[in-house]
Amino acid sequence: MSLSLRIFIIYMLFVALCSYFVLRTVMEEIRPGVRQSTEETLVDTANLLAEFLRKPMLDNKINNAFYADIFHAYGQRTPNASIWGVNKFAVNHRIYVTDKKGIVLLDSQDIAVGQDYSRWNDVYLTLQGKYGARSSHEVIGDESSSIMYVAAPIKNGEEIIGVVSVAKPNRSVQPFIDRTQRRLGILGGGLILLGLLSGAIFSWWLSRELHKLREYAVNVSQGQRAIIPDSKIASGELRQLAQALESMRKELDGKAYIERYIQTLAHELKSPLAGIRAATELLQSPLLQAPGSETQRQRFIENIDSESLRLQQLIERLLNLALVEQQQTLHDPKPINLNHLMDELLDNQTARLSRQKIQVQKDYITNAIAHGELFLLRQAINNLLDNALDFTPEGGIIFLRTSLENSRLAISITNQGDPIPEFAFARLTERFFSLPRPATGKKSTGLGLSFVQEVVVLHGGNLELCNTDEGVIASVSFPR
Question: Most buried one in 109, 202, 207, 297, CB count within 10 A?
Answer without folding.
Answer: 207
